[in-house]
Design brief:
The chain has 2 domains: about 1-175 and about 315-320, Ribosomal Protein S5, domain 2; about 180-310, GHMP kinase, C-terminal domain (Alpha-Beta Plaits, 2-Layer Sandwich), CATH 3.30.70.890. Helix content is about 40%, strand content about 25%. The protein has 10 helices and 11 strands. Strands 1, 2, 3, 4, 5, 6 and 11 form a 7-stranded mixed beta sheet that branches. A 4-stranded antiparallel beta sheet has the order 8-9-7-10, sandwiched between helices. Helix 1 (about 65-85) packs parallel to helix 2 (about 105-120), helix 2 (about 105-120) crosses helix 3 and helix 6 runs antiparallel to helix 7. The protein is globular, with a radius of gyration of 19 Å. The structure holds adenosine-5'-triphosphate (ATP) and L-homoserine. L-homoserine (HSE) binds near residues 150 and 271. It comes from Prosthecochloris marina. Pathway: Amino-acid biosynthesis; L-threonine biosynthesis; L-threonine from L-aspartate: step 4/5.
């Protein structure tokens, strides 16, 4: 019997202007997946879920429906076909769900990335993280019907990750500037990614597209040159934010509070309802967090929120 624990942290997709093509990881919170290898298969499938904590009973226990176990099944198929490793035993999976569901914090991707590094370790590390990330991305299809990579890729690889192409997958990791800090405000409501995607426009005008790709290019340049002012000016989303803001009570009040408190920029984290902001020091990011929390509690709905202040995580999914 061998036991391994994988950890992967929350991630923030889109980063304002990079809808489905840009995301980054923060250092905490994150999901933990504990895998225990048994010699004998105890089920038809080689993976079974023995416990899930922290989800209030909301997540599927069927191994084909939970992202954590689904990606391990895909990984085992892959190493059998491509690496000549035919695993005949059984894997018991325990999921410690520390990330809130439908939060915009990449909850489903964190479970998948944590499970994959643990499974890879159990099997003697036959795959690189660049190989594993493909399964994590497929896990997103199980979670919300779309295999977007802007949570799964940074959950696995850390840093900022730019998805240059989906077909074939071409991922570019971008290390963060040294003094960039993220404030993440998670209001206590849920917004399902599938629904938040359904409100988006199917087509956009050339004017909107021009504005958006100008900002994506400038944001990448700002990250690579540690130009904090440019990073701030580029955090503009002309496509998703205007459509999703009405789904998040108090979105503009919280965004304005963050900017007034000195944030470089602020937008929706992934598909929401969480909201993120960047600052150029830890102290500034903490002040921004207080302002965001206060603003959520001041709106008509008086929303409670959790605040995290974090640098960008450079490590990605890991064994703990
Ligand atoms: N291990 C898992 N963790 C979280 N959600 C899972 C997991 N496995 C399956 N799901 C399914 O994914 C859905 C949650 O997905 P959703 O994409 O809305 O949340 P999220 O991962 O927090 O999203 P976001 O990318 O916006 O942060 C739920 O329907 C849930 O059943
Ligand atoms: N890019 C995805 C991220 C989901 O967290 C979306 O905006 O729908």
């Amino acid at each position: 019997m061998k036991t391994v624990t994988g950890f992967a942290s929350a991630t923030i997709g889109n980063v304002a202007c990079g809808f489905d093509v840009l995301g980054f990881a923060i250092t905490e919170p994150g999901d933990e997946v504990i895998l225990t290898q048994r010699e004998k298969r105890t089920d038809l499938l080689p993976v079974s879920i023995t416990s899930i904590t922290g989800d209030g009973g909301a997540l599927p226990r069927d191994p084909k429906k939970n992202t954590s176990s689904f990606v391990v099944l895909k990984f085992l198929e892959y190493i059998r076909t491509n690496k000549g490793i035919d695993f005949e035993g059984h894997i018991e999976l325990q999921l410690k769900k520390n990330l809130p569901l439908s939060s915009g914090m990449g909850s489903s991707a964190a479970s998948a990335a944590a499970a994959l590094v643990a499974a890879n370790e159990l099997m003697g590390n036959p795959c690189s993280k660049m190989e594993l990330v493909h399964f994590a991305i497929e896990g997103e299809r199980v979670a919300c019907g779309s295999a977007h990579a802007d949570n799964a890729a940074p959950a696995m690889l850390g840093n900022f990750v730019l998805i240059r192409s989906y077909n074939p997958i071409d991922l570019i990791t971008i290390p963060p500037p040294d003094n960039l800090f993220c404030t993440l405000a998670h209001p206590h409501i849920e917004l399902r990614t599938a629904y938040a995607r359904s409100v988006l426009p199917r087509t956009i005008s050339l004017k909107t597209a021009t504005e958006q790709w100008g900002n994506v290019g400038a944001l990448i340049s700002g990250l690579l040159t540690s130009d904090y002012e440019l990073i701030g000016r580029s955090l503009v989303d002309a496509i998703a934010e205007p459509k999703r803001a009405p789904l998040i009570p108090g979105f503009y009040s919280v965004k304005n509070a963050a900017l007034e408190a000195g944030a470089l920029g602020c937008s929706i984290a992934g598909s929401g309802p969480s909201i993120f902001a960047f600052s150029s020091s830890y102290e500034a990011a903490c002040e921004v967090g207080e302002a965001m929390k206060q603003a959520f509690s001041n709106i008509r709905e008086k929303l409670q929120s959790d605040i995290w202040v974090s640098p960008v995580c450079k490590e990605g999914a890991k064994i703990i």
